[in-house]
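Anyone up for a design puzzle?
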């Protein structure tokens, strides 16, 4: 690519003397703040309607968010009305703080406080941009002038809050475009804001450091947060918050490293909706904690509901590869992956008390209301384990281990000829047509079996071969042995290699009767031939399997 020289790395800055965050682990969830209803909503081509915002707000409360940014009341009449609707209809639980956004300008702040009359617990989130580029090109102000915007705004928040003492006020300040701001200057601005707020507030002020535009690797952001944490005014009296965007595709990593570096609070949106490439994905971060044994303090146990709400209210598609929620995240096409998953799931079912440890599946799908059935997806890259897993879990066929390789190659060939993935129904139909109760050349019409003595029976069978019926009989120590003798006498040359039977509940009969499934392998011309018989009668199931094997020889 050309022109890479026109871009520059993040400015050089004083790094922490001793980095401590790389040696830490996330052992506790931060305070979460959803910005779906504001930062996310403003980024939609078709913003949410009032009804959709109400539904989304109720959902956020339901799954456990205690801090929810509901809008920018002074930005539009719609935003103002939504704020008033929640307050006037008593829709905000006592343990939930609603957050509203405002610029550090008097008319905006005044309108914001007007929208909040009667609210119980409110975070007023004030911001102004402090970055080099914004100072230079947008505001055309020097550092002192930009800092005065922040401190004047901070004083106005105190002034207006004093007029509404019945509300529990929480203040938040964001030096917007923090990642494009000199860190020592950002510290200077926020420390001056804190000096104004500390004497008034009974609650801890929140200082929010956003990666408004990601412009470095996540480790540098973590260094900045550690440096801030070590140098901010009265660290134990305030809350450090972070708000990462996803311009470099690392919003989740930036947030996680920010937590390690000292952040107490994370702003983001469910599934990462937001301006440009979006906000940090709170669901992704929370589930990353969950799969390492940390309680995320948000209930994402029903990802199907998350998907439903998101697609209804946000009206955007979810990538099939999106972590945790995407259609394909619990899916394996690779044969070796399918085999490992199948074996891991079998072990997990046998030992449910043990901690989850299934290859390729960091999360038990059942814990998030996903199902085992869609895990295995079959295409020309799939293998024996996946086909066997699917047939067992969806149709009740416990395919013998010895049969799986042949069956896997057969299904892969079907998929290859179709040049696409096969549905579970298509896989079953192909399996049944090729292996179960075949009667294309030969069919079993009826049989009679008489016991001759304790070591022998006499078997009489009526077969139809190419439309002609014939009756044959033979003796053997069992029906399979007797039928083998009949078939060999008819000129079919084979050797018996494998035989097993399983019971299968017949869903059509709602468990009243069970089908007997017979699996056999015979050897013909040095090649193994597998076949399956299915019938309520054990003997008929065995004989049908043998007829199927002959039909597979004759095809």
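Challenge accepted. My sequence:
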């Amino acid at each position: 690519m050309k022109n890479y020289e026109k871009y520059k790395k993040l400015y050089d800055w004083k790094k922490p003397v001793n980095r401590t965050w790389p040696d830490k682990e996330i052992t506790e969830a931060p305070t979460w703040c959803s910005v779906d209803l504001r930062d996310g909503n403003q980024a939609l081509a078709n913003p949410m309607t009032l009804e959709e915002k109400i539904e989304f707000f109720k959902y956020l409360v339901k799954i456990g968010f205690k801090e929810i940014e509901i809008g920018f009341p002074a930005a539009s009449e719609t935003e103002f009305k939504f704020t008033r609707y929640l307050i006037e209809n008593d829709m905000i639980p006592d343990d939930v703080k609603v957050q509203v956004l405002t610029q550090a300008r008097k008319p905006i702040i005044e309108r914001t406080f007007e929208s909040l009359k009667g609210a119980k617990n409110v975070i007023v989130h004030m911001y102004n941009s402090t970055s080099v580029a914004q100072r230079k090109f947008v505001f055309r102000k020097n550092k002192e002038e930009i800092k005065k915007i922040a401190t004047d705004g901070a004083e106005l928040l105190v002034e207006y809050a004093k007029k509404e003492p019945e509300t529990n006020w929480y203040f938040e300040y964001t030096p917007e475009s923090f990642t494009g701001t000199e860190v020592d200057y950002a510290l200077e601005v926020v420390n001056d804001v804190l000096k104004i707020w500390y004497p008034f507030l009974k609650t801890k002020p929140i200082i929010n450091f956003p990666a408004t535009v990601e412009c470095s690797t996540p480790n540098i952001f973590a260094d900045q947060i550690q440096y801030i944490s070590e140098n901010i005014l009265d660290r134990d009296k305030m809350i450090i918050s972070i708000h990462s965007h996803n311009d470099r595709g690392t919003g989740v990593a930036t947030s996680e490293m920010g937590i390690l570096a000292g952040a107490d609070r994370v702003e983001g949106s469910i599934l990462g909706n937001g301006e440009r490439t979006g906000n940090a994905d709170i669901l992704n971060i929370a589930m990353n904690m969950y799969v390492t044994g940390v309680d995320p303090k948000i209930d994402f146990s029903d990802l199907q509901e998350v998907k439903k709400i998101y697609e209804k209210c946000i009206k955007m598609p979810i990538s099939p590869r999106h972590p945790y929620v995407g259609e394909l995240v619990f899916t394996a096409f690779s044969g070796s992956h399918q085999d490992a998953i199948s074996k891991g799931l079998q072990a997990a079912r046998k030992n449910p008390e043990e901690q989850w440890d299934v290859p390729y599946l960091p999360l038990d799908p059942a814990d998030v209301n996903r199902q085992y059935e869609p895990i295995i997806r079959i295409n020309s890259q799939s293998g024996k384990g996946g086909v066997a897993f699917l047939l067992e879990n969806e149709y009740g066929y416990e395919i013998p281990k010895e049969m799986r390789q042949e069956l896997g190659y057969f299904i892969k060939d079907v998929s290859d000829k179709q040049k696409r993935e096969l549905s579970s129904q298509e896989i079953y139909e192909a399996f049944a047509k090729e292996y179960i109760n075949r009667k294309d050349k030969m069919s079993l019409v009826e049989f009679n079996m008489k016991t001759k003595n304790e070591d022998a029976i006499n078997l009489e069978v009526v077969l139809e071969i190419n439309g002609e019926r014939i009756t044959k009989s033979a003796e053997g120590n069992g029906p399979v042995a007797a039928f083998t003798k009949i078939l060999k006498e008819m000129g079919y040359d084979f050797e018996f290699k494998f035989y097993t039977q399983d019971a299968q509940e017949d869903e059509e009969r709602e468990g009243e009767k069970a089908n007997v499934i017979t699996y056999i392998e015979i050897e013909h011309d040095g090649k193994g031939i597998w076949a399956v018989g299915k019938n309520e009668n054990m003997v008929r199931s065995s004989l049908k399997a043998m007829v199927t094997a002959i039909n597979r020889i004759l095809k």
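A detail worth pointing out: The radius of gyration is 34 Å.
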